[in-house]
Amino acid sequence: MRGRGRARTVALGVLPTIVGLVLLTLLAPPCAAAARSQPGGDGADRADAHPAGADLGPEEFESIPAYDVVLTIATNGDLHVRETITYDFDAGGAHGIVRRLPYRIGDRLYEIRGVRASSSTGAPARPRTRRWWHDLLISVGDEDRAVRGRQAYVIEYTVTGAFTPGDVHDELNWDALGGAWEVPIREAAVRVEAPVVLRKARCRAGTSAAGTPCLRDRDGPYAIEFTQSALRPRESMFITVRLPKGAITVPPPRHAPPHWAVTWAGAGLLALSLAGVAAAARGARAAPIGLEAGPGRSQAVPVERGALLAVLGGALVVADVADEVRAHGAWAVSIGDASMAGVGAAAVGSAVVCLHRFRMRITRRRPGEGNKVGR
């Protein structure tokens, strides 16, 4: 019974460690995805796979005939967005559309609030939001009612933290269409409105901010409209706006800890722990048989300490992971030196218990058989 109890104790200690490592594997930041979804990143090192404006070929079963966006810059630095999306569903219909908005790009955090939706064609337009990885998913529609044909949806929301402050100007880089649509966009227009004269504003269309320049039409000193035709799936329009320093109030950017925040100290501690485990295993196999045959207090105390160390190590991993999750949400996992220390402690504690059980199994055998195994 004591052996089973210790096994359960070790399992409770090791399980959180395994869960932490699995989360680390699943949540390692995908650089390519971050670069693709970055709203207006420079993208100079990426070439567009399909130039914007190229012939789309035959009419697709599903498409977006028109996509109109209005970006209104407020004096407090907020970005008010109004998107009018005309979506042409195929004959089978669907339950609505899903708009993906990045709320985290790399370690930069954006606050998206005030999400509203409506439909001028009478389609169900109740918005539902949920976070998935680094995106906020806005589902517009009704799960119990399918729509067909051409429908128009209006999505409105406000973004805080979209501007990046600089020494001489404040800059907005924004992926106006999202770059996640799996259907072609026939006609797209993005209108930028500012409380001051817009002198530096540009638009690039394609799969990155280094794509094709958009057509532009100035509507007075405070507004500019960009247009682009025949966008392929996953192509977008990247807007860059520079305003003079002090023209609006720009709050400092918010950042989340990186998913992988292990320093050389944490990695070295883990390596030393694993090296200690390997050395202990070799020593246990080479040690003479029979020294641990008596199950007295001297045998139980080290094993119990090993089980406790395994449990404490697993708890340290969970605490390190949960700290950022509690602060920034389920997808804000950050693996740091504390996790590495926890993994190392759990490994050493588990090794103590497992090596003890290994020695005990050998010493219970016949002396001749035990010596044969020991060699």
From TrEMBL:
InterPro entries: DUF2207 (IPR018702). The keyword Transmembrane applies. Keywords: Membrane, Transmembrane, Transmembrane helix. It comes from the Bacteria. The chain crosses the membrane at residues 260-281, 302-319, 331-355. Residues 35-55 are annotated as: Disordered. Pfam families: DUF2207. Residues 63-202 form the DUF2207 domain. This is DUF2207 domain-containing protein. It comes from Actinomadura rubrobrunea. The lineage of its organism: Bacteria, Bacillati, Actinomycetota, Actinomycetes, Streptosporangiales.
